[in-house]
Write a structure and sequence with these properties.
Layout lengths: L8 E3 L2 E3 L6 E6 L4 E7 L3 H18 L4 H17 L1 H12 L3 H21 L6 E4 L5 E8 L3 E5 L6 H13 L3 E5 L4 H13 L7 E4 L3 H10 L5 E5 L2 H13 L3 E5 L4 E5 L5 H13 L9 E7 H16 L20 H15 L3 E4 L14 E4 L16 E7 L2 H8 L4 E2 L1 E5 L3 H10 L4 E4 L14 E2 L2 E2 L4 H6 L2 E8 L1
Parallel strand pairs: 7-8, 7-10, 8-9, 10-11, 12-13, 12-18, 13-16, 15-16, 18-19
Antiparallel strand pairs: 1-2, 3-4, 5-6, 6-22, 11-21, 14-15, 17-20
Bound molecules: nicotinamide-adenine-dinucleotide.
Length: 476
């Protein structure tokens, strides 16, 4: 039974669909069947969204913090009430397992609750000057935000794109991925149902390059927020430059994991295999290059392959499934290309390396060992369930390999040596570092990268401040 919802855009609080607009067919990645038809914006739709965002900003920038907090708290409550329905639709359009989708709803609930509190702590400061003069520093909302969210976290990404601007007093036009629209619409609907004025947040869909060019060229938009690949991020950053927009860029990564001989190997394996296969590896902070000290390499590689090979792959709604299909046909094609290239270069396949079944976009958990540095997968984000395990000898070489790539999103290390932990924390070039843990995100902690992985952060006070500008008034 397909009880996937009817799809629309939401502009100025109204559902917008039909009217001869182009459509995008939404596909269930577990079986390749079309489950919905998404209307795509034409230029007039985008202009209406821009007009609404301009009006919405004038209204929302003077809202009280208590008003914004009430909307975010209310939306969090509604998301919790609707958790099962939202998670199920996310599985239908994206493929991940139901528990993963339910967790994603919780991630947004936690973020909205955090921002409901944090928006009440946007303080300024007064500078005392001689002879009764003073200067006052305040933080004001930056203005209407154009936000682009990808398909890998269809609930969580829109939650991030909407939560911080709304908490800051901005309006938002969200273009979430056309492949996973129902999840984004559900997050926006919860905010609207909790009392957010319709002009403050819109959801549009379209041909991505048409939408981004149109919105970023408009004088209405004051900030670009993007999550996606580095290639697209650089393109959008160039467009944003013409209007000198503020930017938050959450781009690709190629997570190194340094495993030292003194680590508790079974605990490491129990953690990192599940971490690698979460969301079928389609995670920007996914661990990718496992750099393992040679004295424990064989044990680590064998243990990894054994655990990954035993992972149950299947439809995300099946309660036995541990890993769902990949989200779209481009991903298994990319896995085949990257694995073929790596094996031609001399890598060994310890497990997997192939598609699963002949329906949908399933791919087997894969472990590649001793992959040469020149192989494409050592340099390009795989964004899939493929782990690279390579032996290395000493700490300096492991750090050099971790920092070799232009990416700097997440890095991980496993060692019981406290001095080494401090060295790694200082030396690894990454926005987020996990020492003896895979948990590197939380509503109260900044999430973002360095180098080609982008700039700015989401979540935490930093994510809120990224939607504010600082102004100083000097009084004589
Ligand atoms: P892609 O690079 O074309 O698209 C990535 C995302 O950007 C999609 O959500 C897409 O809708 C959006 N996008 C593309 N062109 C755009 C434009 N001109 N304006 C606005 N948005 C645009 O291709 P893809 O096949 O969807 O993904 C490929 C790669 O993207 C993956 O291999 C991965 O490296 C990266 N990716 C990263 C994340 C992340 O969380 N950082 C999420 C999804 C994809």
């Amino acid at each position: 039974m397909n009880d996937y919802p009817a799809l629309s855009m939401i502009i100025a609080g109204e559902a917008v669909a039909g009217g001869g607009r182009r459509t995008h067919a939404v596909v269930n990645p577990a079986n390749g069947e079309v489950i919905g038809h998404l209307p795509l914006a034409d230029p007039a739709d985008l202009d209406r969204a821009l007009d609404a965002a301009a009006r919405g900003f004038l209204r929302w920038r003077t809202s009280t913090a208590a008003e914004r907090a009430a909307v975010l708290e209310g939306a969090a409550r509604l998301l919790l009430e609707r958790q099962d329905m939202i998670a199920r639709n996310a599985v239908l359009e994206q493929g991940k397992t139901l528990p993963e989708a339910r967790l994603e709803v919780m991630m947004v609930v936690n973020l909205f609750r955090f921002y409901a509190g944090e928006c009440q702590r946007i303080y300024g400061r007064a500078l005392v000057r001689p002879a009764g003069q003073r200067s006052t520093v305040t933080h004001a909302p930056v203005g209407p935000v154009a936000a682009f969210a990808p398909w890998n976290f269809p609930i969580g990404n829109p939650g991030r794109k909407l939560g911080a601007p709304i908490a800051a007093g901005c309006s938002v036009i969200l273009k979430s991925a056309e492949e996973t629209p129902a999840s984004a619409l559900a997050v926006l609907q919860a905010l609207l149902d909790a009392g957010l004025p319709g002009d403050v947040a819109q959801a549009v869909f379209g041909v991505p390059d048409e939408v981004s060019r149109h919105l970023l060229a408009s004088p209405v938009i004051r900030k670009l927020s993007f999550t996606g690949s580095t290639v697209v991020g650089k393109h959008l950053a160039r467009l944003a430059t013409d209007n000198m927009l503020r930017t938050t860029m959450e781009l690709g990564g190629h997570g190194p994991v340094l495993v030292f001989a003194d680590a508790d190997l079974d605990r490491v394996l129990d953690t990192v295999v599940a971490q690698k296969l979460r969301n079928a590896g389609q995670v920007c902070v996914s661990p990718t290059r496992f750099l393992v000290q040679d004295s424990v390499f064989e044990r680590f590689a064998t243990g990894f392959a054994k655990r990954a090979g035993a992972f149950r792959v299947g439809p995300g709604l099946d309660p036995d499934t541990q890993m769902g299909p990949m989200a779209n046909p481009r991903r298994p094609e990319a896995m085949e290309r990257l694995i073929g290239d790596a094996t031609a270069a001399g890598a060994r396949v310890l497990t997997g390396g192939h598609r699963v079944g002949n329906r949908g976009y399933f791919f087997a958990p894969t472990v590649l060992a001793e992959v040469p540095t020149g192989a494409v997968i050592m340099n390009e984000e795989p964004f899939g369930p493929v782990a690279i395990v390579n032996p290395m000898h000493d700490e300096a070489a492991m750090i050099a390999e971790a920092n070799r790539l232009p990416y700097g999103l997440a890095a991980f290390a496993w060692t019981e040596d406290a001095r080494r932990q401090r060295r790694l924390a200082a030396e690894l070039e990454a926005g987020m570092i996990g020492l003896n843990t895979a948990m590197i995100a939380g509503a109260d902690a900044p999430f973002g990268g360095v180098k080609w992985s982008g700039h700015g952060a989401e979540d935490g006070p930093e994510g809120l401040h990224a939607c504010l500008v600082t102004r100083t008034v000097h009084e004589g």
